[in-house]
Amino acid sequence: MSISPAALEAAHLIDRLERLTRAGDAPGGINPAQWEALRYLARANRFSRTPAALADYLASTRGTVSRTLASLESKGYVARMPNPRDGRSVDFALTAQAQKALRRDPLKAMAEDIDRALRQDAADLVDRLKRTLGTAIARNQGRAFGACASCRHFCPQAHAAAAAPHHCRLLDVPLSDKDSLAICVEQEPAAMPPSRAAGRAAMP
Amino acid sequence: MSISPAALEAAHLIDRLERLTRAGDAPGGINPAQWEALRYLARANRFSRTPAALADYLASTRGTVSRTLASLESKGYVARMPNPRDGRSVDFALTAQAQKALRRDPLKAMAEDIDRALRQDAADLVDRLKRTLGTAIARNQGRAFGACASCRHFCPQAHAAAAAPHHCRLLDVPLSDKDSLAICVEQEPAAMPPSRAAGRAAMP
DNA sequence: ACAATTGATTTCGAGTAGCAATTATGTCCA
DNA sequence: TGGACATAATTGCTACTCGAAATCAATTGT
Fold it and tell me: What pLDDT is attached to residue A49?
């Protein structure tokens, strides 16, 4: 039931590292929360670029991300379009201006520090952080937001010789190679969980 | 000049981990920035509990931390007292209420995740994060905020058999065992730096 | 003694954040 | 077919963060 001093120290360091990165962010009128939204949109597949998905990803509320996206839209970083399959929903996409801004993502400064400090040990750090994040997400009863390719609904090479050879059994759509590397709201790790309904029911 | 994919991924994971911890914070009316201030005050020595030091630590501005501390004061978490050595300066201290609140620090949830996910590998994670943070601080031209015991002005066992056996050569004051583990604004790693003046001159 | 520096605070504007209420769809079932 | 209910997004409200610039007081260097 007690927490190890090393783990507490590690949590402290993660907090501090993130703090320094956030503080040292570049000009351009993009706030930390807005950067997180841009990063998400850059990695999310076409079924996941909605305010609701982003709110889940950030463990925030829909009201908050609605404002964040409105702010990004007014600055020209994202564009909004109606969702063809659900009239209530809205899809967002990055503009060229956002693609350009992401090339100066302040997170890259932290990545540089990691490279400088650890050289090839970085892979080891990634492994440990991944395991920790998995645990944290489970505790938060959140969604994993992993890549399609590691999802239990992913069916590789379902359509031979097509431009989109893979397939999602949940949404029943074909997926390209690029799609299969994007993150998805609906993604569920391929391993154990018995059914989607059971997984959802477990989070009241 | 290019950033390794592993480092970028690690930066991403650190960002996300911190985000989830921040979002899942407990009730009690303490916001993330306020938690950071409480954590700092809990670890800082008696020469470092001022708004200016906290602003440096958080890589924020004095105006911002002034507001944060005022907010904490109005909620009864910190108490303010004049600094005897400098009439401009103000010292802050945690109240009993804050000590109690810190026992429910949301950061402990992340520490638990680390323990659960990594077991004894946590020490390894700490090592990698420490090296990275050192690099990040150097890049930001910030102060290290390390413990007295690892400072170049620290003189261990200067006063034999006293309650405060150690000594700080910079401030010319005796230090207890407990003091020597606290973090300090003035701390400078014991290793290489030639002089304090030179270190300061390096920050425009 | 006086100018420059430093510590703290305040004001201002933009934005984040959570909660609750609202509107517009979509879904399910009797 | 309706009606009840669930869901997506947004907005009003309030509290707070954050940075920049201005102000005031105390200290330091020359």
Answer: 93
Residue B180 lies inside a defined structural domain of this protein: yes
Each residue's pLDDT tens digit, B43-87:
998 889 999 999 989 988 899 999 999 999 988 899 999 888 888
The amino acid present at A108, given as its one-letter code, is K
Measure the CA–CA gap between B51 and B66, rounded to whole angstroms: 6
Which of B125, B127, B131, B137 to mutate to test binding with chain A, by most A CBs within 10 Å of its CB? Answer: B125
* Residue partners of B64: CB distance under 8 A and separation at least 6: B33, B55
How many residues can be counted in chain A?
Answer: 204
> Which tens digits make up the pLDDT trace of B22-52?
877 656 678 888 999 999 999 998 889 999 9
The total number of structural domains in chain B stands at: 2
CA-CA distance, A109 to A115, in Å (whole number)?
Answer: 10
Domain limits at A174?
143-204
Last residue of a domain, one of B102, B132, B159: B102
pLDDT at B145: 83
- DSSP H helices, chain B, are 5-23, 32-43, 51-57, 62-74, 96-102, 107-118, 122-139, 196-201
Residues of A in contact with B108 (CB under 8 A): 3, 8, 11
Q: State which of B52, B84, B102 marks the end of a domain.
A: B102
pLDDT of residue B162: 83
In this complex, is the C-beta atom of A26 within 8 Å of any C-beta atom belonging to chain B? no
Query: Would you say residue B199 lies in a domain?
Result: yes
